[in-house]
Amino acid sequence: MQQALVEAAPKHYFRPPYVGHRGWLGVRLDRDLAWDEIAGAIEDAYLCVAPKGLTAASGLVGGENAG
Question: pLDDT digits over 1-15, tens only?
Fold first, then answer.
């Protein structure tokens, strides 16, 4: 997901130094990116790492660990 976002919208996203190699995504908050899009990226990231019990309790669906 990180590479796809950075390549699709380098004006808004970047691979941060030191932690980018671990999949972290940098977001340029001063570049008029819609807050709904930022919230969606945060939700997607949470779903990838959160235990399935927490994702179920949150009402969010999806992610590697959910199901």
Answer: 889 999 999 999 999
Q: What are the CB-based long-range contacts (under 8 Å, 24+) for 43-47? A: 44/1
Q: Which residue blocks in 1-67 are alpha helix, DSSP H?
A: 2-8, 35-49, 52-58
Calculated CA dihedral for residues 42, 48, 53, 59, nearest 10 degrees: 40
Q: What is the DSSP letter of 14?
A: E
Dihedral Cα 30, 40, 5, 14, nearest 10 deg: 40
d(CA 20, CA 17): 6
**Beta partners for residue 28, in sequence order:** none
